[in-house]
Design goal:
The protein is α+β, with helices and mostly antiparallel strands. The protein is elongated and about 160 Å long.
Length: 759
């Protein structure tokens, strides 16, 4: 059929249908049907002509595009392809024809199937990027070397591909195939994309997956691995280089030669750092000489031992930490662990690093002695605890002193109305004595917390020992002999006499209790000259001249593990009811508050020796020229004057007010500082003495007194407090005409101080 020449089969059928419709139009007599058939036939013929025109236009455009590509890349030395969106090749230049041949209807993925693994995935990825950005490029490892594959978008459904092959990556020109090191390229899924000739010779075949090459599934760059070679497993060090995309380039390096029987290498054995090797299960594989010396073990100690047998963590199982490092869940790190193989409190800083030996993961431990560091940390924690307990003791003492002031004060008021002949006198005396005993206990708390008020003076130790020895003889009893030896060369010291006597009594009582079967207690004094600083225990004694007081007993001694705790408050080795645990802590507090030092030496069963060091007191010229005031007793008599009493504790205020009124004073009471200042706003009011508590809610005592003295500078001041005198800071203690009275005070103490201020 001549009219159908050059048409597609679909167009031919359209023409036949149109002619048939026209023929039927002449045969049908009905006008309407004839007209419809006539129009249908003409429409089919016109549609056929239009399709032929469009097809011709597309063909001419495709021919023009091919001519343009031939002019652009036809003579390019690199193979070039033009494909549609489905990857079918529409054009290939001369280099592509020479390199890959001519194949009609072939896809580019099929043409490159022999060049590298999974070409369809690579082409799809590059085409998607080119559709979005206009072009894309990627380097691919092939069996012949490296291939640079680039693509450019030509239109809606056309792409131009260019392939550049690089067979020479080094000056030798041999590429990866010429490397002497076995090398493979794999993707993240473990599929081998390329292996060089050296790798194929080692394996005896062309590998397809990584799990057929490496005997372990998990490894990192630098690990020692085992390779399934043609002659059996071999050891190697794997080095990994990140490739383009999701590629992994793996190189095999020779593994270091091992020693026979897996012994520790000489350099490992003799390195001056403690090193140990552990397996993933925690078992000890080897340890060098430095590690064995640190752990005090023999040559064969590592057999059968595990990581948890050697070390103990204070927070979690040590094997969990080791396993986390070996499996790579945690990076290399250091922990301070207790050494379990030693009986004493010894610590080591252990730093773990992941290693691989003969394909087995493990850990290398680097040890350093941390015992001194751990003890320093414990001492710091202990000092913080002692400071907190000291603050607590000071607060308790303040509140308790207020109670004791009210108890003993009202007891004094009752004793004024009852003589020895009254039946109630003995009961009141018992109350007063027990209140004094409670006050002594509070004084121990303040001594421990170093918040008591000391009245230091120049003391001759010979005089102090002479006065206190008769009391000490009564304390030790009949079974214990007390010996006092004084060296006349000992110089004077500066300390509070009563507190120093308390120190001696506490030490002698402790020595007596350590000798239930009797023995000897020896008190010695001796001079000590230090030409340079002396380091003893955790203390450093500066150079200078000192007086030493030694208290030595022949009792049961103190175990070594308790020597560091004997000065702690409430720590005692006595049975319940035999001691409060405050004796030695009180000694420590008084001595340190007086500027001295206390040391102890003891061994179980051989007795104990306490050494107390006080600096020799050398008075200056002013102190030598001024004679010490003679103690005089103040005769209490009825007096006149106005006293403003400011006290927030109602029982203490009630007692103090009654005591002062009984002596003839006019007393104005105020509950707090604000109320006191309000009272003083009356200019006609005359006040002679302020008696005020130091610590009160709101404005404290020194603050309101300084404000009141601006208008009344001649008023005398008496500060009272259950805390020590050092609760007055340096600025507040400079208030003129002021004295301090510590709680608990008696009726006579209060009235004597007030009378002393007025006269």
């Amino acid at each position: 059929m001549s009219t159908a020449r050059g048409l597609s089969p679909r167009a031919v059928w359209l023409v036949v249908a149109g002619i048939a419709a026209l023929g039927l139009a002449y045969l049908v007599r009905e006008t309407g049907l004839r007209f419809a058939l006539l129009m249908a036939g003409l429409a089919l013929i016109v549609l056929t002509l239009m399709l032929r025109g469009i097809s011709g236009f597309d063909r001419r455009r495709e021919e023009r595009r091919v001519r343009d590509l031939a002019l652009l890349v036809g003579e390019d030395a690199a193979p070039c392809f033009a494909t549609d969106s489905l990857g079918e090749i529409r054009f290939r230049n001369a280099s592509a024809i020479a390199r890959f041949g001519e194949g009609g209807g072939q896809t580019l993925a099929a043409a490159l199937s022999d060049q590298f693994a999974s070409p369809a995935a690579v082409l799809f990825r590059l085409q998607a990027r080119a559709s979005a950005t206009g072009s894309a490029r990627e380097d691919v490892v092939t069996r012949r070397g490296h291939l640079r594959l680039s693509v450019h978008r030509l239109g809606e459904e056309r792409f131009l591909w260019r392939l550049e092959e690089f067979q020479d990556r080094n000056p030798g020109g041999r590429g990866a195939e010429g490397l002497s090191l076995p090398m493979i390229v794999a993707n993240r899924a473990g599929v081998v994309l390329f292996s060089n000739d050296a790798m194929r010779r080692v394996l005896g075949e062309r590998p397809k997956r990584l799990d057929r090459i490496f005997l372990q599934t998990d490894f990192h760059s630098g690990d020692e691995v085992q390779i399934a070679s043609a002659s059996g497993p071999i050891r190697a060090i794997v080095a990994e280089v990140e490739g383009a995309g999701d590629r992994r380039e793996l190189f095999l390096l020779p593994a270091p030669e091992r020693y026979s029987n897996d012994t520790v290498p000489t350099d490992f054995e003799n390195v001056p750092v403690a090193l140990m090797r552990f397996g993933a299960d925690g078992g000890l594989r080897a340890a060098n000489r430095a590690a064995r010396e640190m752990l005090r073990m023999g040559e064969g100690f590592e057999s059968g031992l595990a990581f948890h047998d050697l070390f103990e963590d204070l927070g979690r199982p040590v094997n969990d930490w080791l396993l986390d490092v070996v499996e790579g869940r945690l990076p290399a790190g250091a922990e301070v662990l207790r050494l379990r193989v030693q009986g004493d409190e010894s610590f080591a800083q252990v730093q773990l690093h992941r290693i691989v030996e003969r394909g087995r993961s493990g850990a290398l431990a680097i040890l350093s002695d941390a015992t001194a560091l751990k003890k320093l940390e414990a001492q710091f924690n202990q000092s913080q605890k002692m400071q907190a307990i000291g603050q607590l003791a000071g607060g308790i003492a303040h509140d308790f002193n207020n109670l004791l002031t009210a108890i003993s004060g009202h007891c004094d008021l009752l004793l004024l109305r009852h003589g020895p002949e009254d039946s109630e006198f003995a009961d009141l005396e018992q109350i007063r004595q027990n209140a004094n005993r409670a006050a002594a206990l509070v004084s121990q708390l303040l001594a421990f917390s170093r918040k008591q008020t000391l009245k230091p003076e120049r003391l001759e130790l010979h005089d102090v020992l002479s006065e206190v020895s008769h009391l000490l003889n009564r304390l030790v009893g009949e079974k214990v002999e007390l010996s006092v030896v004084h060296d006349p060369r000992v110089g004077p010291v500066r300390a509070d006499r009563r507190r120093l006597e308390q120190v001696l009594m506490n030490l002698v009582v402790n020595a007596r209790d350590a000798m239930p079967e009797g023995g000897t207690i020896r008190i010695e004094t001796a001079p000590l000259t230090l030409p340079e600083a002396m380091h003893r225990g955790r203390a450093t004694v500066p150079a200078g001249e000192y007086a030493v007081i030694r208290v030595i007993d022949s009792g049961c001694g103190i175990p070594a593990d308790r020597l560091d705790k004997i000065f702690e408050p409430f720590f005692t080795t006595k049975r319940i009811g035999e001691g409060t645990g405050l004796g030695l802590s009180t000694v420590y507090g008084i001595v340190k508050q007086s500027g001295g030092y206390v040391f102890v030496e003891s061994q179980g069963g051989t007795g104990t020796r306490f050494d107390i060091l006080f600096p020799i007191h050398k008075p200056d010229e002013t102190e030598l020229a001024t004679p010490e005031p003679e103690s005089r007793s103040l005769t209490l008599r009825r007096a006149e004057g106005v006293v403003l009493l400011v006290e927030d504790e109602a029982p203490v205020r009630a007692f103090a007010s009654r005591a002062l009124r009984m002596r003839g004073y006019t007393v104005l009471e105020a509950e707090n500082a604000e109320e006191a200042l309000k009272t003083l706003q009356d200019p006609a009011l005359m006040v002679d003495v302020f008696v005020t508590d130091v610590v009160m809610p709101g404005m404290d005592g020194p603050s309101w007194v300084k404000r009141a003295l601006e208008d009344r500078p001649d008023v005398r001041v008496v500060f009272v407090s259950g805390y020590a005198e050092d609760c007055l800071n340096e600025d507040q203690s400079r208030i003129p005409n002021s004295v301090f009275l510590a709680k608990p005070f008696s009726l006579n103490d209060l009235t004597a101080v007030v009378q002393g201020q007025l006269h």
